[in-house]
Amino acid sequence: MQNFVFHNPTKILFGKNTVPSIGNETVAFGNKVLLVYGNGSIKHNGIYDQVIQSLQDVGATISEHAGVQSNPILSHVHQGIKIAKENSCEVVCAVGGGSVIDEAKAICAGVPVQHDVWKFFTGKKSVKNPLPLTTVLTLAASGSEMNSGMVVTNDATLQKFGFANKHLFPKTSILDPACTFSVPADYTAYGAIDAVAHVLEFYFTTTEPYTPVQDRLMEGLVINAIESCNRVLEDPFNYSARAALMWTATLALNGLTGAGLGKIGFPMHMIEHSLSAFYNVPHGAGLSAVIPGWMRTQVKLHPKRFAQFAERVFNKYEGTVGETAYQGVAALTAWFEEVKAPTSLTSLKVPDSDIPGIAENAMALAKVWRMRDYSEEKITEILLECR
Amino acid sequence: MQNFVFHNPTKILFGKNTVPSIGNETVAFGNKVLLVYGNGSIKHNGIYDQVIQSLQDVGATISEHAGVQSNPILSHVHQGIKIAKENSCEVVCAVGGGSVIDEAKAICAGVPVQHDVWKFFTGKKSVKNPLPLTTVLTLAASGSEMNSGMVVTNDATLQKFGFANKHLFPKTSILDPACTFSVPADYTAYGAIDAVAHVLEFYFTTTEPYTPVQDRLMEGLVINAIESCNRVLEDPFNYSARAALMWTATLALNGLTGAGLGKIGFPMHMIEHSLSAFYNVPHGAGLSAVIPGWMRTQVKLHPKRFAQFAERVFNKYEGTVGETAYQGVAALTAWFEEVKAPTSLTSLKVPDSDIPGIAENAMALAKVWRMRDYSEEKITEILLECR
After folding, report:
1. Within this chain, do residues B217 and B102 fall inside the same structural domain, yes or no?
2. Measured by CB atoms within 10 angstroms of the end CB, which terminus of chain B is less buried, N or C?
3. How close, in Å, is residue B157 to chain A by CA atoms?
């Protein structure tokens, strides 16, 4: 096991009827609240009203910043920072999925500084004294509700970049599984796949030879993402299944899975970010198009690791280690198909002729993330395998 | 899944050569430090010198409170509080295993108040503004390094009581697996069994029917406690194995396993506390004497749950559900025997004639812990099964 620091100070309030706590949890940090949300779905399912009521009940002054899009964009972050500054907001409350929470984190980081917030994403500046953040989660997927990372697309340069900073953990996140009842089947599946992808990035990029505690944790989370997603798709209003999926997605990227694994990479995210930047596909859909191809390029290099995954997650025990290893990839791909997620660039209608441009774009992020083992050629090879 | 709050603010520094960070981590909360430790083993293995050096390097004033015994006692807690008050200590640094950390927590809670610290244990007073605590862990077992609970024996009344309070999470805990190299085989096994017991208490006392995320986490931790303990016993200086055991024990009682399980109990601890109070047996040894008997009384009541445990932890799949369920209990008992831990009251040389007294003592704790489904009769029945 490699040395690590684990320090996750986010307070999670999980369960039924927890949304009305958001007022108290938020004004603990200040009365002037910037409320950040997306394209208004929270106005249809009643969550918006609950949040406003709770904030008003505790005397908050609310400024609103709506319209965060899936794959949030920098120009909209700039608008949010402007509103927060104009209204002297002291705390940010994000109500939505990972995109909304990510944009809110960028706003929190950007308000106290004079320079462009994008400098945090390119590693040119480091976050200090951000505004505190509270969240109400409405989508089981990104884990942003209990971690310090975020991803934003620079709509001027079409770069989808991400970074993490220890000051950006939400103070409190409210996770009511009932808030996800109205998430449609496709986005439910994309969310589950996002959670699975977070685990796979750690699981298959660690070079640490002995991480048995983390392995069991990660394998359990993949099993749970799959099983709970399947249950939700059968019965979208099944509270227990929504709860299991929600908690799984949160635990899949709260720092625990990676603690002790040493240096890990996010190669699938690195490539996917270019797909969302160019085609604005949902993040989980982009991931599911990349994961099978990426895994096929890796399975030969780490057959034992892939075989362990196949055995423990999918109960595949037949054949040689190499055969078992492939069966795990095939089983995961089959599950993606089962939940109607794309499993190739072709299914996303990305033409072969776009591959060089995607590789070039992804390479820019690989440089920022210091993924030195990825060249534009290697990314191209993976993209060809993803077709 | 039941509603829950999860909020664990302890910062973990895990790995090789992390002990020298204790100075900085501690004086962040004040320069006047109360150093709490046990019976001097840290003076033989060099950890004491490292800690003193690190504290001196950052200009700390150190007051010492040594001699914490395994199963820490109230009169010694009182002494620690006195020393801390006399020296106006601002922060407590515990160097040791669960007993040392538990006693340090009691001291942290007791310093700012005028009343007897025991009132926290009997539920008559609630902790406010305790001194901050940092720790250097030297035994993989209790999980106290990353939770807010503690257990102390009132040596006047022979009551071994415990409680938890959200203000008592250590601020920082340093976990260097090399600090456990000198732990002998028996205490290594008792520590692993303590970690297993923490998982079993949650796993088998929850009445929540659907907790798949927590189940996989808990099953993984039991598997890892067993596997890493076995590796350590074969090769005590195996860093990876010590690391896996250490992290497993920490995760086994940091709040994550129980989050969402609803009301759970600590029946095995409740009974074991009386054994340590009367006979001063090591906590893990007391637990291993109680666990098999307690499980045998429960397996008929929850055969499916016990069968799931047998299947996923011990790969037992044969026979009926009821048969499988028993195979899990037998396999765990066999492992206790393998690591030379007691598996009955008889092996602890507790005579049958003591059983009524033990049951009476345990019942007092059952009342404090509000375990309404445990009567003195029921405890007696379990103790008879533990013979």
Report:
1. no
2. C
3. 38
